[in-house]
Amino acid sequence: MGKIINNKNPKLVFIVALFLFLLGILPLLQKCNKVTNNTGIINTNKERDLKISDPTEYLIISPFIIDDDGNGDYTWSQAVNETWCNGSGIWGDPYIIEKVKVEGQGAPLTSGIHIKNSDVYFVIRDSMIYNFGQSSGSSSAGIKFENVNNGKIYRNNCSYNSVGIRLKDSNNNTISENIASKNTAWGIALFYSNNNTLSNNKANFNNVENSNDGIELQQSNGNVIISNEVIGNGMCGISLDANSNSNNILNNTALFNGDKGIEVVGGDFNLIQGNNVSFNYYGVFVSNGNFIIIMENYLEQNEDYAIQIFFSANNLIFDNDLQDNGGGIRVLESLNQTLLGNIMTGSGIELFPRTLDEATSHYIDTTNTLNGNPVFFYVNETGLELVNFLNVSQIILANCDYSLISNTYLDQIELHFSTNSIINNNSVSNNSKNGIILTNSIGTIISGNILLNKTTAINLWYSNNSEILNNIINDNYVGIHLIYSNNNTIFMNNMNNNDYGIGLETSIDNKILQNTIHQGITGIIFLYGCKYNLISHNIIDSPDIGIYLLSLPGLGGNNYNIFVENTIKNCEQIGIYFVNYLPNENNLFYENFFINNGLHVYYDLGISFNNWNTTDIGNYWDDYAGFDANDDGIGDTPYTRVGMRDNYPIWFDGPTIVLTTPVNYTILADPPDYIIEISDPNLDTMWYSINKSDYKYVIYNNGSINLSAWSSLNEGEMSIRFYANDTFSNTNYEEVVFIKDTTPPKITILAPNHRDFVNFLAPNFTIEVEELHLDALWYTIDNGKNNISFTSNSTIDQTSWETLWNNLSNNDEITLQFYAIDAAGNVGFAEITLIRFDPSDLLIPGYNVFILFVLGVVSIIFLLAKKK
């Protein structure tokens, strides 16, 4: 049997308990320490960021220059005598500099380890070089080679410098497993350096402010850049600039860089293979690059194009995987591009040729797929009929005339240097970039298509004499965009929730007619150099800005355009917005309707001259403060705002409303009838609202107030407003106030009391009536055969009482009923019953004397009995 422990030795108990507590909490403390050390918080302490091994292992030394020409701090034969250098400088026994820490304290023109004019074999490894030339441009570096061959830079941390590792005129070197991050210029930079290998380095977060690159090559050839990590750099992950040729960029990870993941500018015969290039602005970008192979790369969610080729020739793009990028593969002003086996989702191939030779020079076969279906590319065809196509995502036509693309579900359609084609009744969606693209094409009809969720739904470049009509264009960045395109007609399109509905840029003699543009940022935008366009009968409803005219220096203003009979309404900010870097002038505005806009017209950066009326008519402005006394539809005074004057504003004074029924302050129990007379030559809509609510009860003639609405109202005072507006949205109203009363008067009979005996004389009565709108009182004693009115408490009419009395016998009942009616016609009622009683009807001769005699005898007997 166990013992019961008592506290005879409390000190011992306390010590044992404390020991057990510490023993139990120790694993938790260790766990917390692990969590704290693995939070992923970026440590801004440079030495901790730079640490490769235990800092006690580093030998702290000053910056130095090794120059085998004798112009530095050491030659190699001198440096080997230092404690931080050993070896003999041959292939099997290179000079080794290792485990040193060189801190520059921001020295502006100094590099940490600077090697010059060297051909011996050497290795710099496991060292930390930082804080050199952070604000001095790109000449200072952590490790710097000039005219150096056969060196190896291995497993060093060269961060927080101007450049992490910099090679100039240096060949056959190896740069491997280094960290070159958070430098103000480049992580690793090669200038005029050939046949070097850069592998497994981390060059991340370099120069976010000044936009340089993780790895930069300039005029450097034959280098291998393999398995490096370049993340979060200000400009490019990897950049081959200024004619760098025959380099291999293999299996690198280029993510989250500010501009391009991988860039080639002016270089030929480069190979870009097996890289992960994702989450950058552009993925792979080639400009003026020829005979380049871009293959087997993975490109995901780059903000703009995954692969862009500009002004380049004879490149091969194949077997790349493009997933959900802002754009797919874009080829601009380039020749002889071969595209094979590329898998694309979200956006496909876009060609922007400037010449017919460019448009027809490419090879694109159906092994390229967009959203799981093949891409079709046709060249030099006539009379193509691509109708009811199944399982196709994209159609590209180059120099194809009289083509028909119809009744097909597609992601993208392109026509280049093609004439007289028809694109109709297609559904073009599921593409993050452009829907329908025309370049240098003439006489195209684009009709009846549905275009959703794109950057630009319909895009015309250098394309003329086309018709864009009856399309549904919703939820795009730009609905229709014309660039250097003339004599086109944009007609009766329905456009909703596009950021920019219709945009014109340096385009002339186009007609924009009868389109409906709803919501978005801007309804119609003119971007410089747009002239002689007609904009008519469009409805622009509820964007931020209705029509925006922007001019820019060197690109011209927007002049001599005609805006007529458009409705511009509910613009949150501005109806017509001029931004005049150059004058937007000599445009004509008339018979337009400006309704409920934040501002109807606004000039920015100066005022330009435009015409706001013809010789006899201007525009309708809903905030016009004048009158039309002669009812000719023209305001009697001009409409003026800063920078504009409409001499003949359209104006009608609004409908005239005469309300005859109901009359003000009528008391009502039932829905009232209304009789109104409304006169206006342009009458549009009539309605009423109750108690100033926003709900409209539309009416067409005289009638009664809606019964359901009436029933929902509480009793008391309320109002009805009868409205009418005209086709110009001028609105007037008349208001009537009434009182709803559906409760009948309440009557309380105080006298006489129920079932009182009453005699021949008519009784007095006293009643109380609860009613605010009492109209009349009456009573009846003969069930309503005769009603007797009264105004105050009194006596029942004696004549009527006698007539009733004489026709009744004793103990017969008399019903006395009181009534009250209020002004709304509600009737209150109360009644009591009275009993007819007349004592004279009960008398019998001698009967009373006999009673007195009997009472006397009984009294005497009672007294005698009491005495005994």
UniProtKB/TrEMBL annotation:
Coiled-coil ranges per UniProt = none
Q: Which UniProt keywords apply?
A: Membrane, Transmembrane, Transmembrane helix
Which positions, given as ranges, span the membrane? 12-29, 842-865
Q: What is this protein called?
A: Periplasmic copper-binding protein NosD beta helix domain-containing protein
InterPro entries for the chain: Beta_helix, NosD_dom, Para_beta_helix_rpt-2, PbH1, Pectin_lyas_fold, Pectin_lyase_fold/virulence
Q: Pfam families in the record, alphabetically?
A: Beta_helix, NosD
Residue stretches making up the Right handed beta helix domain: 418-550
Q: Which residues form the Periplasmic copper-binding protein NosD beta helix domain?
A: 111-253, 255-351, 558-626
Gene3D superfamilies given for it? Single-stranded right-handed beta-helix, Pectin lyase-like
The answer on whether this UniProt entry bears the keyword Amino-acid biosynthesis reads no
